[in-house]
Write a structure and sequence with these properties.
The complex is a heterodimer of chains A (about 375) and B (about 375). Chain A contains four helices and 28 strands. With about 375 residues, chain A is mainly β. Chain A has one domain: YVTN repeat-like/Quinoprotein amine dehydrogenase (Methylamine Dehydrogenase, Chain H). The chains are: A mainly beta (about 375), B mainly alpha (about 375).
Chain lengths: ~375, ~375
């Protein structure tokens, strides 16, 4: 209940009153509010705000396909980023009192679909590509000044994807997927022979590199894409393999700020079910469980972070979205499914749109 | 907006293009669908399309290797012409197999060694010119070449040798080093083509896995997964034609860039695009994959073949080298029209065919997210 209140406080006093009666009622009885980019049946894109029961309380129109959403209660704003190599991000007021603001990446940059606010809500960090130089950058936007782009610093790698703020509030952890693309060639991958994925820790104050961690050289085609932080401040990550399909490398691991990086050993049959592809990673509310989803393998895993072993395997066709709820996760799919897994109290629901890859908990 | 304007131009300038949009009437025998079992689709794809295409590519590269050897042995204008013709055949053959980005071509950087493209920074040109200017002897030995950048080992490098600045020396002794470097590249290409063919012909390899999926295979455990690979090949193949072969030189933002066209030096840009599209149509048609759908989707095969015909109409209108085609209103309109047709085909494969077969190909396209 607290998180709904926190959300309402951030959204403003008039938010609930501005909703249609049934939506207001849905929100009134909700404990949590989530957001996800969506694709409407028959075309068109947007972002939806939902209760944990999957009731839509508000929507935001998008010019093209979105990807992840970040939210700051301090800023009172959410931001949905274009799917890479898109060039827009839409800042929205969950209360709907302020018109959405569409940001455009500067000349020579495009977004990668992920971003995060600073703890005070004054800065927005976004993963971007400096595609002429072929380098990843973090774009820094002033959330107190119309989201003007203030500066950028390097990600120390190619193809940055998800970034998170570490619990210290001053370190960004960034997954450099290692894959070079250029908007002139769509989403074509240009450097599969020389990929160099890494997890990097960067100081938000200076942009300085604190640490850069790589997997074994033989795994250079294992693109590190999505992350979540557990109760022990370990950064769990999920990978997508770009080598031959008959290979079946481990796909899930964790990294720490003190320089450790390792892949956990998932059973061979489970690994086979993941089809060399993890599309999202999320940590449970208590940080003791990590969820990973494979839309290619129609599978969601819950992994006990203390033993590094799967505690649940759930089939979910086109399943990818994950966010903490209850003791487990709410999960979503490209087929419009919304359900609770691994200790969640959420009931199954089918929506009349496709969920994109991620769910954000607005808290 | 530019695209729409271009389409309007296409419709005005090329009446034949204005006739499309009406799919043929539905087949009266719809109720009999599916007409083919999924296992047969997979067998057709491997035995009637993939294996023959790689075998042809192997033979063409062997001919090119011989032609380059003969050119170096006895330089002449005739020998250059023979090598150039052999190169054109290899480009054609390669364009009919390159979209099979599965199995052996994904190993040992073979795809990149056969063709380093796209190359937005022009890495290959700089490195090939460096080899030629320094007369780097290591590049005239296959093992030495293999130790070098993948950008100097494939078709792009050989095209520069045969058609780039200085290629007029090939017909005489002055082109000695250039020819031997080109011949080494041709040998390396033929070696890869031979390996690919062997791997596809091998009984217990990728071909078997794709035709007869099994639970204990890591790549294809079920017919659904194998079919997803075929549909993915079609969807991603046509997407690559649009994103890497057409849009880079047509210009996404209104600025044409003829030198961003693959094989512009040899004038084979559109021949390669045609071979790409014909190759994808062959996979679609000969595998009979669209006949594996239920009665509700019985018209999908005709609709898709109709769209392929539209692509050939567009291709038929582009008759000049790309630099000239880009400044010719009618040909530019046809190029833009081809972009639209490839988008349509991509949607037919990735969305419609995938859904009709109850597959999950469309959710995360080329590189996922």
């Amino acid at each position: 209940m607290w998180q709904r209140r926190a959300f309402l406080k951030a959204a403003g006093a008039g938010f609930a009153a501005s909703l249609l009666p049934w939506r207001a009622q849905a929100l009134e009885t909700a404990e949590l509010v989530f957001a996800s980019a969506i694709q409407k049946i028959g075309g068109g894109y947007g972002a939806a705000l939902l209760t944990e029961r999957g009731e839509v309380v508000a929507t935001v129109a998008l010019p093209d396909r979105g990807h992840d959403i970040t939210f700051s209660p301090q800023a009172g704003r959410g931001v949905v980023f274009a799917r890479q190599p898109g060039t827009f991000a839409v800042v929205f007021d969950p209360a709907g009192k302020v018109e959405p603001l569409t940001l455009t990446s500067p000349e020579g940059r495009h977004f990668y679909g992920h971003g995060v606010f600073s703890p005070d809500g004054k800065l927005l960090y976004a993963t971007e590509s400096d595609f002429e130089a072929g380098q990843g950058v973090i774009g820094i936007y002033d959330a107190t000044g119309g989201y003007k782009r203030m500066a950028e610093f390097p990600t120390y790698g190619i193809g940055p994807h998800e970034l998170l703020l570490m619990p210290d509030g001053k370190t960004l952890v960034i997954a450099n997927g290692g894959i070079l693309t250029h908007p002139d060639y769509g989403r074509t991958e240009l450097n599969l022979d020389t990929m160099d994925p890494s997890v990097v820790f960067v100081d938000t104050a200076s942009g300085a590199l604190i640490g850069q961690l790589r997997l074994n050289a033989g795994l250079h085609q294992l693109s590190i894409r999505h992350m979540a932080i557990d109760a022990r401040q370990r950064v769990w990550f999920g990978c997508q393999y770009r080598g031959p399909a008959e290979d079946s490398p481990q796909l899930v691991g964790y990294a720490t700020m003190d320089g450790k990086i390792e892949l956990i050993e998932l059973p061979a049959d489970t690994l086979g079910d993941l089809r060399n592809y993890i599309g999202s990673v999320a940590a449970s509310a208590d940080g003791k469980t990590v969820g990973v989803a494979s839309p290619e393998g129609d599978l969601v895993l819950a992994i006990d972070t203390s033993s590094s072993r799967p505690s649940l395997m759930q089939t979910l066709k086109n399943g990818c979205g994950l966010a903490p709820q209850g003791n487990g996760f709410v999960a979503s799919s490209g087929d419009g499914e919304w359900l609770g897994i691994a200790g969640s109290t959420v009931s199954d629901r089918k929506l009349d749109f496709s969920f994109d890859n991620h769910i954000a908990l607005l808290s | 907006m530019r695209l729409i304007f271009a389409l309007l131009l296409a419709l005005c300038a090329a009446p034949v293009l204005a006739q499309e949009g009406k799919a043929p009437p539905p087949n009266a025998a719809d109720a009999k669908y599916p007409l083919i079992a999924r296992a047969e689709v997979l067998a057709n794809a491997v035995e009637k399309v993939i294996r023959p295409a790689f075998a042809t590519f192997k033979a063409e590269t062997a001919d090119l290797n011989s032609a380059m050897g003969a050119l170096c042995e006895t330089p002449s204008a005739q020998a250059v012409a023979t090598a150039n013709a052999a190169f054109a055949k290899v480009v054609d053959g390669y364009s009919r197999v390159e979209f099979f980005k599965i199995g052996p071509i994904t190993e040992q950087n073979r795809a990149e060694r056969l063709l380093f493209w796209p190359d937005p920074k022009g890495i290959a040109l700089k490195q090939v010119q460096q080899i030629l200017s320094s007369q780097d002897a290591a590049a005239t030995i296959v093992d030495g070449l293999r130790g070098k950048s993948v950008a100097v080992q494939g078709l792009g490098a050989l095209e520069y040798v045969l058609f780039g600045t200085g290629s007029d020396t090939l017909a005489a002794d002055a082109g000695h080093f250039r020819c031997h470097y080109g011949a080494t590249v041709a040998t390396a290409i033929a070696g890869i083509a031979s390996d690919l063919d062997l791997d596809w012909q091998t009984r217990d390899g990728i071909a078997t896995h794709l035709m007869e999926p099994r639970e204990d295979y890591t790549d294809y455990r079920t017919k659904i997964e194998a079919l997803e690979e075929i549909v993915g090949t079609l969807a991603h193949g046509i997407e690559a034609v649009r994103d890497t072969r057409l849009l880079p030189f047509i210009g996404r933002t209104g600025k044409a860039a003829p030198k961003q066209a693959l094989f512009w030096r040899s004038g084979l840009t559109m021949a390669a695009v045609r071979a790409n599209i014909e190759g994808l149509e062959t996979l679609f048609k000969v595998s009979r994959i669209a006949q594996a759908v239920g009665p509700d989707h019985a018209g999908l095969e005709n609709t898709t073949l109709f769209e392929f015909k539209n692509a050939y109409r567009g291709l038929g209108l582009v008759t000049s080298p790309v630099a000239d085609a880009l400044v010719d209103t009618r040909q530019l309109a046809a190029l833009n029209y081809l972009v639209i047709v490839t988008q349509s085909l991509g949607s037919l494969f990735g969305d419609t065919l995938s859904a009709a077969l109850s597959l999950s190909v469309g959710f995360s396209s080329l590189d996922g997210d």
